[in-house]
Fold this sequence. Notes:
Helices cover 60% and strands 0% of the residues. By secondary structure, it is mainly alpha-helical.
Amino acid sequence: MEDEDDWRQCAEWLxxxxxxxxxxxxxxxxxxxxxxVQALMDGVALCRVLDILxxxxxxxxxxxxxxxxxxxxxFLCCQNIRLFTQLCxxxxxxxxxxxxxxxxxxxxxxxxxxxxxxxxxxxxxxAKLSGVTGFPPENSELQTTHEYYNNLEEYxxxxxxxxxxxxxxxxxxxxxxxxxxxxxxxxxGSSAQHSINSESxxxxxxxxxxxxxxxxxxxxxxxxxxxxxxxIILPIHTILQKYKSPxxxxxxxxxxxxxxxxxxELHNIHRELFxxxxxxxxxxxxxxxxxxxxxxxxxxxxxxxxYCGHVQRAQSLVVELMRNDVEKRTRIExxxxxxEKFSKFxxxxxxxxxxxxxxxxxxxxxxxxxxxxxxxxxxxxxxxxHEAMKELAQSINEVKRDLDTISAIxxxxxxxxxxxxxxxxxxxxxxxxSNPNFQGSFTTAAIVSPxxxxxxxxxxx
Length: 461
């Protein structure tokens, strides 16, 4: 075990960074280095660790070269790893000799060097500011040159035959991070601001209260986002007016429209939804049932499919503005600091909350349905409302998957076009009958796996 101690220390460090979950195979008694290769080979976890070590100052997820769902594409996985190494050098001052090539990790050609890079990163001055203890401990050395790593490449070639469960560990961690954001911003500990008379002490009553309270908090968030882009002083007393004034005249109307597209419609929809929930849970009024509240709004919630398709562009624009314009970055940061309960969240993070919220309705209604007696007058309606929200969630998840696939193909196409343009320019500059550099130029283009060419045959180059 001593010979293998470096990769295990690396896995434990990634766990301290909240990148690998506690039950990851590499952390178990039967774990081995190939489990760690499998966790890192798509480059997603590597990029995520930079976000953690930079204390979220590096929003890698919004960078154009980052692919959050490479879907086993060697091209996109290697692109993620390449981005990781570039940021290690640029943002964490890692010396060039420590940097790795994508295949050192993806195909485990030199995994020992990869661990040495991660060790150097974990002990860098900027990483130390995050408070995460690096590896190895003081007065100890890595064993990355040991022959244990020599055979990893042949094992890595069989990874496609392994189970997909460990490939999804990072995705699970990413979802847990989103859940924490949602719980803090929307759930807020289910603050019990709304009392429900006779049902207030029952499990069913608590469930209803959670639906109402979290909807109130969500409407507050949408109102805040709307206030960010408002160019008119609104007579609404809200902490989010602290966002509006600093941004007025700093961001252009086009930039504000792009960042906050659909937020106005969502705010109107959920403000009405919240009002109807208040009516449905008022014991002194029988205007509308709880199930009808969701059935009536079902079709209007289909707008979330469009929002889901747009939110990544909005996030990318925020990152671009903050990277390239000092005044805009300063104003946005000022808004964040002054937004009280939302102050620890970046605008790019808050923009993901609407998707989290709409995917919660069927879960909340399912819980309420289970707590509703079979002879309760709302039982049948709740069954119908739950199915409606479940179908909505499935539809939105399908949109998300389709968009991930399209994004992956677009990135491959863009890189292919760039490679081919560079290659063609190189050919034009050399005589056709004798080109000593031709083989090298073609090798550059050949980093794209042949399996991807079938996607691009009809694409104009």
